[in-house]
Amino acid sequence: MWSLIAYNNQKIPLYQKIMLLIEEQIKIGNLPVGSPIPSERKLAELLEVNRSTVTRAFEELSDRGIIIRKKGSGSYVNTEKWGLQTQPIINWQPLFGVNTAIEKSPYQRKIDALKKSGKMQTYLDLSNGDLPTDLVPALKTPELSWGELIQKENEMTTNQLGILSLRQSVQRHLAKTYQMKVPLEEILITSGTQQGLFLIAQGLLKPGDTIGVEAPSYFYSLPLFQATGVRIVPLPIDKEGVMMGPLAEACLNYSIKMIFINPIFQNPTGSIMSFERKAALLEFCQLRRIPIVEDDVYGGLNFSTDEVTPLKKMDQKNQVIYLGSLSKYVGQHLRIGWMVAPQNIVTQLAHIRHQIDSGLSVLPQILADTFLVKDFVSQQARLKKELSKRAEYAEDWLTERFSDKVQFDEVKGGYHLYARFPELDVKAFNKLLDDLLDENIIVGEGQFFGDTVPGMRISFGHAANKESMAYFSLKS
Q: How far is Cα 111 from Cα 280, in angstroms, rounded to an integer?
C-alpha cells in the first residue's frame, strides 16, 4: 500500500509523488472518507524519505482540502468533499499531474460498470433525474417556409438574446405561472440551465473565486465549476432553505462572490425555501453585495402547495439571476432554457456565448416557442397528476421497505424525494445500497450531492406503478 515504486518514472518532485500516492489510496478506497492517515513520522519511515518531504506533501493536500490536519490528533481524509475541487480540471501547467475530477464512490463505480455491461434495462433506475420516456410529449413542428426560417436566422444574428417570439412566450409563461413581470430585454434564451450556469461561471467569475452552494445540492456534482477553478463553500440547508447562521459564518471566513440556490423543490432534497427565509437571504446578500443565482426548473410542478414564489419575484434590487428550463417538461432532447438578469448582464453573457459557439440554433427555439404557446398547460397538468401518483408509490415503498430506519418529508412537487438514514454508519449504509442493487434497484447516493449524512435521492418519476416497485423490491 505504502510504496512509491509506481511513480519512479515520473519526473516530479518527491513530495508530489507522495501526494499522488495518498490521492490514489483515497481513490481506490484504501483510505475512506474520514479515515486517519499515518502520521508524518510513520509515513516517512514506511516510504524511507525525510519527514520534511512528507510534511510538505501534507501541507499541499491540506491546502487543497483533500485532507484535514487536526493539531494533536493527526491527519484525516476530508469528510466534506466540497473542498476537494480547488484547482481547474483544465490546467496547462500540471503542477501535480493528477486527475482532479471528483472521485466516485465504490457504489457509483458499480453503477458505471452496470451501464457499460448493457444490463441497465433489467434495473429500476431511481437515480435517473430525467423525464421518463412515457411522460415525454409529442412535440409539434410548426409549418414554416424557408423564407421564414431564414428570417429567424437573421434575427438571431442581429439579436443574440434569442428569437423574439420565444422570449415573448417565456415572458408570458413567467407572468402566468408566477405572476412575475419581466422586461423583455432582460430575457436571454439558453440551451438549458447548464449553459446558463456555464456562461455565469465564464463571464462573471474567475479562477480562485469562492461561491456558496447549498449542501447537499446537485450543483456539487457539476464539473463546470471545477473546470473554471472556482472554489465551493457548502451552505447547510434545513426544511426552510439556506440556514442564515452558517451563511453568515461562511461569509466571515471566505470572500464569497456569488451564491447558487435551487429554492423550489430543491435537488436532491425536494425542499421548498420559505418566504421568510427568502426575504432574509435577499436582505443579507443585499447588504454584502453578493449576487444570487436561482435555478428554478421544478417550480411549475407543485402537487400540494402554493409556496412556489421564486426568489426573483421578490427581488427589488436586481440582485438575482434567474434560470429556467423546459427539460423537465419535455425531456432532454429539447434543450431550451432562459436566463432573467439585468440587461447589461444578459447582453454581456450573450456576447460571450456568441464568441464561443456563434449562438443558438433557431429550430429548437421554434419548437420550444410552439410548445409554450400550445401545449405547455396541458403537459404541466398531466405531469402534476402523474408525478404526484408516482411520488406516493415511492413514499409507500420507502416506508414498507425500511420502516423506522428511514426519514423523509412528504413530497409536495418536483421530481425528487430525499431519504436519510441517520442511525446508520457508513458501513451499514453501504450495505443497504448494495442490498438494493442486488434487488435490481438503483438510487442516487447522497454522497454524490455532497451530503455527509447517509442518504439517497429517489427520482420517483421512474416509479411507474406500485406493481413495478413491488416487483423489484421483492425480486431478490
A: 40
Measured between alpha carbons, how far is 97 from 262 in angstroms, rounded to an integer? 35
Task: Specify the pLDDT at position 61.
Answer: 87
Rounded to 5 degrees, φ, ψ at 260 are: -115, 125
What DSSP string describes 308-334?
---HHHH-SSS-EEEEEESHHHH-TTS
Residue 343: Cβ within 10 Å count: 15
d(C-alpha 255, C-alpha 268), whole Å: 26
DSSP for 415-476 reads SEEEEE-TT--HHHHHHHHHHHHHTTEE-EEGGGGT-SSSEEEEEGGG---HHHHHHHHT--
What radius of gyration do the chain's Cα atoms show? 24
Specify whether the CB–CB gap between 24 and 99 falls below 8 A: no
Specify the DSSP element, H or E, that contains 236. Answer: strand 231-238
Instruction: Provide the pLDDT for residue 54.
Output: 92
**In sequence order, what are the beta bridge partners of 320?**
292
pLDDT for 468 equals 64
**Whether the Cβ atoms of residue 365 and residue 163 lie closer than 8 Å to each other:** yes
Query: 145: which 3 cell numbers?
Result: 417556409
Grid coordinates standing for 101?
475530477
Enter the DSSP assignment of 299: T
Angle between the N-to-C axes of helices 376-402 and 362-374, in degrees from 0 to 180, rounded to the nearest 10: 80
> In the chain, which residues have pLDDT < 70?
27-29, 33, 79-103, 145-147, 149, 153-154, 156-158, 357-359, 465-476
